[in-house]
Structure formats: structure tokens, C-alpha cells
Design goal:
Helix content: over 70%
Oligomer: single chain
Number of helices: 17
Number of strands: 2
Radius of gyration: 28 Å
Order of helices and strands: HHHHHHHHHHHHHHEEHHH
Number of domains: 2
Strand content: under 5%
């Protein structure tokens, strides 16, 4: 029991350390700044598009004000009402803009979506971004569906809480739980839909749940700080609302990126394995061996099968390895996401493979950690190759250069 508890603690430490390392390696603090800047540019057009869509449906016609109140009361601490007043006055001016100004606002709204996708693709290690057409339709779908989903949730909530049971037995805890649920749904939706790669729902939901907890904690902590300390009021006076709102948007994006990193960390559990990391050349050999055996039996190999080719961590990211083997036309991915060999490797030599792969030949000692017959066989073969290489390349460098 104590041993299992110790192993769980060590695994938790590795998980937290992995998330922290990748958070800074992916420049999430810089990306949060970029997202904050684009959000501030696009918040008025986003509100204009969103509430215009909401008002275009008769059933939601009377919910625009309620939607604004819900958002600013539950997702912007303390200064929400002041910011809401400013943004409403800005939004009302949109109808007076020229066509060029409307186009600029539309581009700004798409820009924030592009920046979000770029950040998510970086975190989830997506090999490439969407093409311009599919990206445009995705952004437009999100901008169109988000207000509709918000309107539906408000309409359903209004209907439920107008029932006699809730009017006679008001439940404030249930009412307080609605913003938290909306946060989980919003974060999960963002993590599943935006990255240009397959994201498992459970991983996205876990990241969304943690992000929602951090968001609610930050909201209450931020409100508590502003109520106790008036530093910004002393420095900026009547303009204090603006920098406070800037900082809050920055914190929201930091929390969003942390949730994405947690979801990614869950999807790459193999990177947190303990033990000696498998070098790039052995990594490629393991996968080619697995695909070769599957081909002989008429089977296909899934991504999870490739991951479980060894219980040790990989020194080379699996996404980069898949991209490399695909680029070299050694493997192929079918429509179901399964992998097969693309070329016949029965006649391929180890010399040809070594020239194709950008990795050094492994040392024989690398196979000692794997107590299998395959590892033992490979160890003997690479030990013999290592001896032959020493004989062939045994001349002194000075003699070779001269």
C-alpha cells in the first residue's frame, strides 16, 4: 500500500513538472500577452457579431441584455459593470461605421481566433495549421454557434427556474453552479475543436475542469484583492478600470493555456515514463519492427500500439517521429488513423536506413534496460557492428586529416 502511494506521488510530481516545463517551453506567458492584445482589439467586434446573431432569432430577442449581464456578472470580477457600460457604448457605434471600418472589425474578430488556434496548435504539437478556407469556416462557426449556445442555456435556465418548485424553493447554490458549468463547457469545447489534431474528450474535459476551478478561484481572488487594496485607484484614478481589465484578460488566457497544457500532458503519458530514454534510431527500429510483424500477419497498428512498443520514454517526440517516417515514405496512415508500412523493408539494409534517419546508431548498452529476447538479439548485433566500426574507423584523426 505504501509503495503504491509512493508511486502515485512520484507520478504526480512528474506530471506537475511536465506541465510546468512545457508551459514555459511553449512560451505560454508570451502567447497569453498576444492573446490579451488581440482580445482587446476584437472584443467589440466579437460582442457586436455575437449579440447581432443572438438578436436575429425571435426566441432570443429579449435575451441580449440578460446575456451581457450574465457574462459580466460571472466572468469579469468587480469592474464588470463599468466595463460593460463602456463596451455597450462602443458596440452601439458600430452601426455608424463605414464599410471599411466594418471590414476592419471583422478581420480583428478573425485575428483573435487565428491567435487562439496558433497557441493551441503549439501546445498540442499539431504538425500543421488549417488551410485558410477550413480555418475561416471554423472561426465563423464558433462565432455563430457560441452566442446561440449561450442563448439556449439562458433560455433553458430561465424556463427551469421559473417553475413553481424553484420559485417556492430557491436554490442559490444551484444558481452559483451554473457559471462554473458554463466555464467547463467553454474550456472543453475550446480544447476539442480549435487544435488541428485529434484531442480525446476525456483529456480536454479534465483540462477544462482544472481551468474552470482555476478561473473561479482567480475570479474570487481578484475581487478580494481589488476590494482590499486600491493601488490601481491611487495610481490611475478614474482610469483604473482599464489596466485592471487588461490584467484580468491576461490572467484568463494564462489559465486557459494551463488547462490546455494539462490536457496535452494527459495525452502524452508516455513522456512521463521513468527509465533510460529510447534514442531516435532505436525508436524508429521499434516501430518499423512492430509494423513489419503486423504486415506479415495482415494486421494494422494503432497509435496506442506504437506508443506501447516499449515501456520506456522516447527521446524523440512521437509526433516528430511519425512525421519523419511519413516524409521518408516508410509508413502510411489510413483513413481510420491506423499505420502500415508504405515500402517493402525486407530488402532494405541497415546501412540504407542509417542514411535515411538523422540519428546516430545506438550503443549496445542501450538495450540492457529491456529484458526481452528482441532487445538481447539487437544488443548482440549492434555490439558486432560497433566492433566493426571501431576497426574501420580506428585510424587517428591526425592521420586522416593529413
Amino acid at each position: 500500500m505504501r509503495r503504491k502511494l509512493t508511486e502515485k506521488c512520484e507520478e504526480s510530481k512528474r506530471f506537475i513538472g511536465f506541465v510546468i516545463r512545457h508551459f514555459f517551453a511553449d512560451d505560454c506567458t508570451y502567447r497569453a500577452s498576444a492573446l490579451t492584445f488581440t482580445t482587446l482589439l476584437a472584443i467589440v467586434p466579437l460582442m457586436s457579431v455575437g449579440f447581432a446573431i443572438l438578436s436575429s432569432f425571435p426566441i432570443f430577442h429579449d435575451l441580449s441584455g440578460s446575456a451581457q449581464d450574465f457574462i459580466f456578472d460571472n466572468f469579469v470580477p468587480s469592474t464588470g459593470k463599468v466595463i460593460q457600460t463602456y463596451l455597450q457604448s462602443f458596440t452601439n457605434q458600430v452601426s455608424k461605421l463605414s464599410p471599411t471600418g466594418v471590414i476592419f472589425l471583422f478581420v480583428a474578430a478573425l485575428l483573435v481566433m487565428y491567435t487562439i488556434e496558433s497557441a493551441m496548435n503549439t501546445i498540442w504539437r499539431a504538425s500543421k495549421s488549417r488551410n485558410s478556407v477550413s480555418a475561416f469556416f471554423l472561426y465563423w462557426a464558433i462565432l455563430s454557434l457560441a452566442p446561440i449556445m449561450l442563448g439556449l442555456s439562458l433560455a433553458i435556465s430561465s424556463y427551469i427556474f421559473s417553475r413553481p418548485f424553484f420559485t417556492t424553493h430557491p436554490n442559490t447554490q444551484l444558481l452559483n453552479f451554473i457559471p462554473f458549468t458554463c466555464s467547463i463547457i467553454g474550456f472543453t469545447f475550446l480544447y476539442v475543436v480549435v487544435p488541428n489534431c485529434k484531442v480525446r474528450f476525456y483529456h480536454a474535459l479534465t483540462g477544462g475542469f482544472v481551468a474552470a476551478i482555476l478561473f473561479e478561484s482567480a475570479k474570487h481572488g481578484f475581487a478580494f484583492y481589488l476590494s482590499r487594496y486600491n493601488t490601481y485607484q491611487l495610481l490611475y484614478g478614474a482610469f483604473a478600470t482599464i489596466p485592471i481589465f487588461f490584467i484580468w484578460i491576461y490572467w484568463v488566457w494564462l489559465i486557459t493555456l494551463i488547462g490546455a497544457e494539462i490536457g496535452y500532458a494527459l495525452s502524452v503519458h508516455y513522456q512521463r515514463r521513468s527509465g533510460l530514454a529510447v534514442d531516435g534510431f532505436t525508436h524508429a527500429l521499434l516501430w518499423l519492427n512492430l509494423l513489419w510483424k503486423a504486415q506479415k500477419s495482415g494486421n494494422q497498428v494503432s497509435f496506442d500500439n506504437l506508443i506501447d512498443a516499449t515501456q520506456r520514454p522516447y527521446a524523440v517526440d512521437v509526433g516528430k517521429m511519425l512525421a519523419l517516417l511519413t516524409q521518408l515514405e516508410l509508413i502510411h496512415t489510413n483513413k481510420k488513423g491506423h499505420f502500415t508500412l508504405r515500402r517493402d523493408i525486407d530488402e532494405m539494409t541497415l546501412y540504407e536506413l542509417a542514411n535515411l534517419l538523422p540519428y546516430a546508431l545506438p550503443q549496445p548498452s542501450i538495450f540492457i534496460a529491456d529484458n526481452t529476447s528482441t532487445a538481447s538479439h539487437w544488443q548482440k548485433q549492434f555490439a558486432a557492428i560497433d566492433t566493426q566500426l571501431k576497426d574501420v574507423l580506428g585510424c587517428r584523426l591526425q592521420s586522416f586529416l593529413s
